Amino acid sequence: MTTEPTGPSYRDRLMAGMAASLTQRTYRDTTIGEIVAHARTSRRTFYKEFSGLDDCYFALLRSVHSEILGMVANAVDMTADWRLQVRQAITAYFAGVQTHPAVIRSYVRELPSLGDPTVTLQSRPRDQFIALLVGLSDTASLRTADIAPVTVEMARFLVGGLEELTALVVEENRPVDDVVETAIIATTRLLGPAAG
C-alpha cells in the first residue's frame, strides 16, 4: 500500500483548492470535501497539512497577503520620480487584489465574524503593509522632492484608505480600475510637498 506524500506542493494545492471553493461559495459554506476535490488529493493529506478548515483558510489569507506585499515591493523603482513610485505601488497593490478577488472578498466580508483568533490575522498583514510603506517612502527621490519619510501613523491612515477602497470594489464586484486613480491622486496629494 502506498501512502500519499506530503510537502509544500500539497499544501499549496490545498490552499488553491480553498481559493477555488471561495469563488463558488462563502467560507462558512466551504467543506473540506470540496477543497480536496479541487486540489485532487485526499482528506488524509489535508489533515497532514492542516489541523482543520480554519487553519487552511488562515494559511491562504496569509499567503495571499504576502504575495500582494511582494508585488508592491517589487513594483516600486526606488530611483524613479516619487509620483511614479506612488503609482507603481498602488497599481501593484490593486493588481494583487484583482488576482485574488474571491479571497479578498472573503477576507473583507467573513473574517471579522470568525472570532478572537482573527484579530491577529487581521492586524498582522496590516502592520506588514504599514512597515512596507514606511520603508518605501524613505528614498532619495522623496528626499530630493523635500518629502519626509512616511510616519507609522500616516502609513496606517493610507492603509486604512486603501482597505476601504478594496472593500468597495470587492463587495460591489467592481473593477479595481474604478478606484486606482482615486487612490493615486489622494496618496500623491497627501504626500506632496505642499502637504508637509
UniProtKB/TrEMBL annotation:
Keywords: DNA-binding. Residues 20-59 form the HTH tetR-type domain. SUPFAM superfamilies: Homeodomain-like. Pfam families: TetR_N. Coiled coil: none annotated. PANTHER family: HTH-TYPE TRANSCRIPTIONAL REGULATOR RUTR, TRANSCRIPTIONAL REGULATORY PROTEIN. This is Transcriptional regulator, TetR family. It comes from Williamsia maris.
